[in-house]
Amino acid sequence: MNSNITISGWDVMDEAHRVLRATVAGVSAGDWDRPTPCAEWTVTQVLQHAAGDQLGYAAAITGEGGPTENPFAPSGRLTEDPMDFLNPTLNAAAAAWATVGKDVETALTPLPLGPLPTWVGSGAAALDAAVHAWDIAVATGQPSPLTDELAASLMKVALEMVEPLRAFAFAPAIAPEPTDTDAAALLKFLGRRPDWAA
Q1: What are residue 106's DSSP bridge partners?
Q2: How far is CA 177 from CA 7, 188, 198, in A?
Q3: What InterPro entries would the database entry show (predicted)?
Q4: Secondary structure of 11-53 in the HEC alphabet?
C-alpha cells in the first residue's frame, strides 16, 4: 500500500477515494479539457470540484483547512500535477474521518442538512468522490469505477440525503428500468445518464 495514502477506516469512503485516485491517474494528458456529465464543466473542473468537496468534508470535522476556492466555480486551470493536487485533499478527508469513531452518533458535514448520522456523513463524502470518479472516467474513455457493490452501498447513503439537496446539488432523478444494474440505478437516482457520452 502506498504510504502516502491516508486511510479513514470507513470502508466505503476508503474505496471511493481509491477509485477516484485510480481514475484521475488514468487521465491522459490531452483529456483534461474534455466535456463531462457535469454540464459546462471540463475534466479539470470536475477534479477541482471533487477535491474541494473533500476539503469541505475535512473542515466540517476539524474546523480548519477548507477549500481556498469555491468548489462550485472551478477555474479549470491546474498549476501542479493532478495527482499532487488531489492526494492531499483525499488524505485530509480521510484523516478527519479517522478521528470519528463508529460509536459516534452524528457528525458535521459541509451539507446544509445539519448533523448527520456518522455513516451517512462519511458515506456522503464517499458518494461525492465515487460519482465524480465516474464523471471523469466516462469523459476520458475509462471503464466505470462504480462497481455494483460500491454503488449498492452508496445508494443506501443517497436515499438518506439526496432529496433535500435536489435543487442545490443533484438533478431530478431519471426513472429506473427493471434491468438496471446497481450502478445504473444509483446514477439515475442522482440524475445522471448511465449511457452518457461526450
Answers
A1: 117
A2: 36, 10, 23
A3: CHP03086, DinB/YfiT-like, Maleyloyr_isom, MDMPI_metal-binding
A4: HHHHHHHHHHHHHHHCCCHHHCCCECCCCCCEHHHHHHHHHHH
In a domain, 197, yes or no: no
C-alpha cell at 56: 469541505
Cα distances (Å, whole numbers) of residue 45 to 49, 84, 101, 136, 189: 6, 16, 33, 10, 23
Which residue range is the domain that position 91 belongs to?
Answer: 11-189
Query: In the chain, how many domains are there?
Result: 1
Residue position matching grid coordinates 449511457? 195
